[in-house]
């Protein structure tokens, strides 16, 4: 008889696989070796395994880590700086002037704090658009997080690279530097059709196609944006991208709040993925994305927080709860966006949206070991008829006790292994003085 072995066994919990069959394993365990899940099943099935380290889930829930499909991680530096404003006032009068004061070190500090907040609230993977993204990639790598990162490209000079020509060069350098990294994927990220001329959009799409990397953009976020685009180009933002041949399966379109039926047909036709950011859309009063319609059309939708200056946190548990309830009230239909749909949106569908569906987003042998443990021994999680219900409607990020990313334990007993959280908070507090000054 061969002795089976695992370097790490996460055991004694209800395992939610979020795989195609949505399996739930009571008294379950997940065996990990190196970066990968090697087996999962009932915990007693592993009693004769040789195990290096055991992580006891204490009777809680073991599930795939959450995936945040749209962040501007370093915007932790601007949390609470400017609230209660329209998007364009918020951006032009407050955020862009503050961002002009950023540099590589500040972005690195802001992103590291974001990683601490994300790991502590159950996120294992995020997709980021910002300035000085090399620093974001380094922060994510330091934190041990999986990330898709891309330098923002737009028509005006960037505080990082200057004119956009150099933005393309910077993006290509990022792609070649991080090509073989197990955690970091580089994306091409034009900001939006309203800040990017047609030529920039076409070049960005060509670059993403050439390197087979994700293409990420803000799209149809506000009514004003749609009006402007129709006046300027005679098309909606989605139809504008279709005209330019930018719509494709590796495009992640963030927000997609103001869509007409033709836009939805186009998104489906080109298999475009959508990132839904309900809290940011609510806070900036941008509107309500037609997510139930997108799902009915068969479009892949992931969940995102957007930057935490328009949210104002990075807790995806809160985001799932908000999204589920927002769409119920918007459609006057309590059956839409049920708990299962929300959990899938935040895990496997998020992974698919980022082009990572084959490696993460569900617990299956052969996939990377990206998982979290939730402590359910809490008054607000008692009793528990259905774990899926609690995860969406009752749990908070602070209920997450452990996190494993790419096979590495990055948090246990709510202690971060990779980040000195006190130091990370101090660094960002120091930056706020400069931002204010
Ligand atoms: C420089 S990277 C990204 C750029 O986008 C700004 N931003 C943050 N949130 C939003 C949003 O909801 N819509 C459009 N632009 C947004 C961010 O401040 C950065 O300047
Ligand atoms: Zn955004």
Automatic annotation (TrEMBL):
Binding residues for substrate: 99, 191, 221, 306
Enzyme class: hydrolase
Domain Amidohydrolase-related: start-end pairs: 61-410
EC number: 3.5.4.28, 3.5.4.31
Binding site for Zn(2+): 70, 72, 218, 306
InterPro entries named among the record's database cross-references: Amidohydro-rel, Deaminase_MtaD/DadD, Metal-dep_hydrolase_composite, Metal_Hydrolase, MTA/SAH_deaminase
Gene Ontology MF annotations: 5'-methylthioadenosine deaminase activity; metal ion binding; S-adenosylhomocysteine deaminase activity
Coiled-coil spans in chain: none
Cofactor(s) required, per the database record: Zn(2+)
Reaction(s) the record says it catalyses: S-methyl-5'-thioadenosine + H2O + H(+) = S-methyl-5'-thioinosine + NH4(+); S-adenosyl-L-homocysteine + H2O + H(+) = S-inosyl-L-homocysteine + NH4(+)
Cofactor note: Binds 1 zinc ion per subunit.
Matching Pfam families: Amidohydro_1
Keywords: Hydrolase, Metal-binding, Zinc
Alphabetical list of PANTHER family matching this protein: AMIDOHYDROLASE-RELATED DOMAIN-CONTAINING PROTEIN, AMINOHYDROLASE SSNA-RELATED
Family indicated by similarity: Belongs to the metallo-dependent hydrolases superfamily. MTA/SAH deaminase family.
Functional description taken from the UniProt entry: Catalyzes the deamination of 5-methylthioadenosine and S-adenosyl-L-homocysteine into 5-methylthioinosine and S-inosyl-L-homocysteine, respectively. Is also able to deaminate adenosine.
Record-given protein name: 5-methylthioadenosine/S-adenosylhomocysteine deaminase
Lineage, broadest ranks: Bacteria, Pseudomonadati, Thermodesulfobacteriota, Desulfobacteria, Desulfobacterales
